Amino acid sequence: xxxxxxxxxxxxxxxxxxSGCKPCIYDVYEKELAxxxxxxxxxxxxxxxxxxxxxxNSELNPDTFTAxxxxxxxxxTEDTYQYKFELPGNSSLRLSLGQHIxxxxxxxxxxxxxxxxxxxxxxxxxxxxxxxxxxxxxMLASGTGLAPMLPILQSITDDEEDETFVTLVGxxxxxxxxxxxxxxxxxxxxxxxxxxxxxxxxxxxxxxxxSYRENTYVGRLSEDLMKTIISSCRRKPxxxxxxxxxxxxxxxxxxxxxxVEENSCFVF
Length: 268
Fold this sequence. Notes:
Number of domains: 3
Family: Belongs to the flavoprotein pyridine nucleotide cytochrome reductase family.
Shape: globular
Structural class: alpha/beta
Helix content: 25-40%
Cofactor: FAD
Pfam family, one: NAD_binding_1
Number of helices: 7
GO molecular function, one term: oxidoreductase activity
Keywords: Coiled coil, FAD, Flavoprotein, Oxidoreductase
CATH class of the largest domain: Alpha Beta
Number of strands: 11
Strand order of the largest sheet: 9-8-7-6-10-11
CATH superfamily of the largest domain: Nucleotide-binding domain of ferredoxin-NADP reductase (FNR) module
Distance between the termini: 51 Å
Oligomer: single chain
CATH topology of the largest domain: Rossmann fold
């Protein structure tokens, strides 16, 4: 059981950016899996801690990831941020002109990697800067109001360069009334997509499959729940609303109470 807990987890297809990165997240997985298998065969967990020696000038190794600390984050525009990473001493990345690096991290519990070209000078010492754009969408759908949200969601997941964070809140009467469950579950596996369900006529989560319980609420989408969802977003989102006239009116009122301006909402 101890060894199984230490076994590397195979990436899902949504974790690969498809840009031909070297190493790809699958390359890293295969290397870590081979290292785990060697350590298990010899029953020596210390072998899992093996690391390649890093050169003094901090040149990156194309076969492995290196940990760096973020020293600052500066918001440049409404959805664009500049991240400054520390390098040890006065070392530099020593990248060629236009060469990109691959950053790996954990977002919403999912390991993600993306390719970026640093914006700092090639000879910058002790740091490097990366520009990231983080848009945020909140989708509020009631019943068949889910329909116009799906093409938007799929256009985001189909574009490997689109880093928009999306929170979809689907409101249905009961669990059985949720439309397109397999499609929604597939979309929720993407690193930048969160999906919540609000079931107005269910009284308990205990009757739901375990995989739905963590992201499902029973009762109606209230003003308090709206504030909770808004506060869980990384920034004030642009909101899309689609449902009955009464639903749309209620959502607009709740959003206003949560501090979301009218010009940040679109009602289908």
